Amino acid sequence: MLNIDYTLIIQIANFLFLLFILNILLYKPIRQILSQRKEEIDSFAGMIGEFEDKSAQSKKALEENKAGARKEGLKEKEELKGEGSDQEKGMLQVATSEASEKLDQARDEISASLVSARQTLEKELALFSTELAQKILGRSI
Question: Which residues 6+ apart lie within 8 Å of 133 measured at CB?
Fold first, then answer.
């Protein structure tokens, strides 16, 4: 059976003294270390959030710059295409005019040689006709 006497009060005092000493020597330093660790973790979490925000902003700016560069490149490409098309048209016009000039020259040369051949044939026509008549008739005319 349990006797309540002065030893119970000593045991309670001893327990409270031990609890007080343990609180000072063990529990307070551990709680202090845990609170410091929690503060560091919270500050790291805040820094991580800031870095994520900066990263998102940098990524957004990079995408905007990339889109702007793409638009500028397409615009420049179209300008170069237009210039190339204009140059092509100019070259085709020059080639067409040169071909037309050469064709006209060839026609002129052909007509000149045709005229020359006709004149030569007309001059020799009388000779050929008399020779042909002499050969057909078998005597000189």
Answer: 141
- 3-class secondary structure per residue, the chain: CCCCCHHHHHHHHHHHHHHHHHHHHHHHHHHHHHHHHHHHHHHHHHHHHHHHHHHHHHHHHHHHHHHHHHHHHHHHHHHHHHHHHHHHHHHHHHHHHHHHHHHHHHHHHHHHHHHHHHHHHHHHHHHHHHHHHHHHHCCCC
CB 127 within 8 A of CB 119: no
Between the CA of residue 115 and those of 1, 105, 107, what are the distances in Å?
157, 15, 12
Q: What is the pTM of this model?
A: 0.45
Residue 3 has pLDDT above 80, yes or no: no
141 Cβ contact list (under 8 Å, min separation 6): 130, 133, 134
Residue 1: pLDDT band (50, 70, 90) is low
Distance CA 3, CA 25 (A): 33
CA-atom Rg of the chain in angstroms: 58
Residue with tokens 């905007």: 64
